[in-house]
Amino acid sequence: MHARIVTACAQAGFALRVVQQPRQMQTTAGLVAGGIGVALMPRLFVPMQPQGITFCELTGAGSPLAYELAIAYRTPSPLVDALRDTARHAGWHVRAGGYDVTAT
């Protein structure tokens, strides 16, 4: 999947710059909550994320396996917009609005 994402970014006119690749999704969520970039995360993490993270659902064909991903981000930014545009360019459906995980 990494190669597909890198290719989609290149086709959209920019290079993906990966600065962290944590092994644990909880670590990834913590980095996003801290304002350090955006992430592609499995949908199953939506209900258990820390407050302050917004999820934008991505769906679509892309491999022989069915999968769903969400873009996790703290605040809207040009980076988030570029990632959404790249996903659309790759043929994914991007649901606007997404999920807003806040404290209850």
The number of distinct β-strands equals 5
The percent range for strand residues is 15-25%
Mean pLDDT: 73
Shape: globular
CA(first)-CA(last) distance: 34 Å
Low-confidence stretches: 99-104
Order of helices and strands: HHEEEHEE
Report the structural category: alpha+beta
The count of helical stretches stands at 3
Count of folded domains: 1
Largest sheet: 5 strands, antiparallel
User: What does the radius of gyration come to?
Assistant: 13 Å
Helix content: 25-40%
Domain LysR substrate-binding: 2-89
Keywords: DNA-binding, Transcription, Transcription regulation
Pfam families: LysR_substrate
Family: Belongs to the LysR transcriptional regulatory family.
Task: Explain this structure.
With 104 residues, the chain is α+β, with helices and mostly antiparallel strands. It has one domain (2-101). It contains three helices and five strands; from the N terminus they run H-H-E-E-E-H-E-E. Strands 1, 2, 3, 4 and 5 form a five-stranded antiparallel beta sheet that branches. The N and C termini lie far apart (34 Å). 22% of the residues are buried. It comes from Burkholderia ambifaria MEX-5. This is Transcriptional regulator, LysR family. Residues 2-89 form the LysR substrate-binding domain. One of its GO terms (molecular function) is DNA-binding transcription factor activity.
Task: Briefly characterize the structure.
By secondary structure, this protein is of the alpha+beta class.
Task: State the main characteristics.
104 residues; alpha+beta; five-stranded antiparallel beta sheet; disordered C terminus; transcription regulation; DNA-binding; DNA-binding transcription factor activity; DNA binding
